[in-house]
Amino acid sequence: MKIYQQLCSFMAVLFVFPNTGSSYSCNIPVILQGTWFSRENGRNTFTELDATSMSRRGRCLAMKEEFHVNYTLIFKQDLCYTCVKFLVRTVNVLEKIETPCVDAPEDHVSIDTICHSSNSSQQLVTLFSENYVPVNCRSSLHGVWNFAYQNKFKFTGECKHPDSYIRSCEQPDSQFLKTNQRFNITYKKCTGMTGSFDGVVEYSCLGDWFLGKNHYFAVANTKESRRDEKYRCFLKNLDSDLYLGVSTTADCSTLNTVENSPERLHIKPVQPEIIEPGCRLPQNFSGNWINTANMDADIFINETHIIETWNYDNGRSSNTTYVCKEQHDSLVMMARLTIGSCQKEYVCFDFVLQHHNIVRYRKGTPMITDNFHTVCSKMQFQNQVKSKYELYLRKNPMHFDDGSNL
Ligand SMILES: *[C@@H]1O[C@H](CO)[C@@H](O)[C@H](O)[C@H]1NC(C)=O
Ligand SMILES: *[C@@H]1O[C@H](CO)[C@@H](O)[C@H](O)[C@H]1NC(C)=O
Ligand SMILES: *[C@@H]1O[C@H](CO)[C@@H](O)[C@H](O)[C@H]1NC(C)=O
Ligand SMILES: *[C@@H]1O[C@H](CO)[C@@H](O)[C@H](O)[C@H]1NC(C)=O
Ligand SMILES: *[C@@H]1O[C@H](CO)[C@@H](O)[C@H](O)[C@H]1NC(C)=O
Ligand SMILES: *[C@@H]1O[C@H](CO)[C@@H](O)[C@H](O)[C@H]1NC(C)=O
């Protein structure tokens, strides 16, 4: 008798969810469980998901999983069924689309019927984990920029100030660890633009994701306790690194294109700090050169600096500067500064001027330390084969009285 009853209820489950594949039970995956914050219809909303239910939506009846990132679930609360699709963006961020709650005959309840009967006016809602785990910012944002900003809702025009900057770099978290789980945006006020302001905003990174060419990342303001002001989304476009879009609410769906974002930052990689030279290169190195290892770069050398400049197709350029710091014989330790990068590094060059028109050199691994004996230790070149020398060729070869140019 008991077995017969169990069989009956098993058949009933089969009957009720004919289209949900082979799994009838619904175990909400751990990645969806927890307490989440969202802005829904202009209100702060908290949503709780545990292994079997969702707050205000009821008990989970069925689930469909696609590629571990898309989960479609049906919930039942009283006589009402809701279909919720969760898109896992990062461990800290979900987006959801859901149908209005519908009444349905029990024998009609399945993912297909409940989810597809729904009406297309569905809106994507961003859910931020209340117990977020900060992640490394490096894949979201890494470097130092100057910026000008626009805010659609606060002022017209662009607030441009030389001291507004974004800095996302590794910083010491403990004696041994350097991490980059937070970044700072320093805003400066522009006279006449009400809504522009002076202040530093520090964000924790909550992870990033791609949708086509749109690169999104989510953040939490570390100094803000009001939930709706705490969470924000950023948008970059893979085709252009000139702008960043920022949401002005805890909602990523307001960011569709960088251009039309509520707040838009016009960013420019920052020229790194000025470094005083500590040595001089031979005068006969000075001039303009071509680097055979990197034909696309122009090389300018004077007695204290080597500047490599790249020109991109789109008319923009970038450069790396080396400053002479310390020299012993043919070995020169140079400080390397890259536009927009977080820190200076030191590199050992081993130079041989072969002719007036050719410089042969080897380059060691960049290091953070400025200790000559470490940066230029024998180890730096020991494992390199002899042919590892690279060449600078004089751009406009010097000619001599005998007609030779060597
Ligand atoms: C997840 O769902 C979204 C929205 O329905 C869809 O655009 C995307 O292609 C899906 N991704 C995967 C991996 O199924
Ligand atoms: C979708 O739902 C809205 C209200 O929730 C309703 O006004 C509209 O007619 C529905 N559209 C369809 C195609 O069912
Ligand atoms: C952000 O700026 C504040 C104040 O200037 C500073 O204390 C903090 O360490 C900075 N955080 C980061 C990640 O640079
Ligand atoms: C380059 O200049 C150095 C001294 O500054 C000199 O010793 C060396 O002979 C010169 N090399 C060539 C190839 O002219
Ligand atoms: C070498 O060029 C750099 C960059 O243009 C400049 O700052 C520096 O003063 C120059 N050094 C000398 C010795 O002329
Ligand atoms: C290097 O690039 C920066 C930023 O694009 C630019 O401001 C600077 O003038 C460049 N420096 C040189 C020497 O080309």
UniProtKB/TrEMBL annotation:
InterPro entries: DUF7042, DUF7043, DUF7044. It comes from Aquatica leii. Residues 277-384 form the DUF7043 domain. Residues 1-23 form the signal peptide. The keyword Zinc-finger does not apply. It holds the Pfam family DUF7043. Residues 25-118 form the DUF7044 domain. Keywords: Signal. One of its GO terms (biological process) is wound healing. This is Uncharacterized protein. The keyword Cell inner membrane does not apply. The lineage of its organism: Eukaryota, Metazoa, Ecdysozoa, Arthropoda, Hexapoda. Residues 136-268 form the DUF7042 domain. PANTHER family: LD32918P, LP06548P.
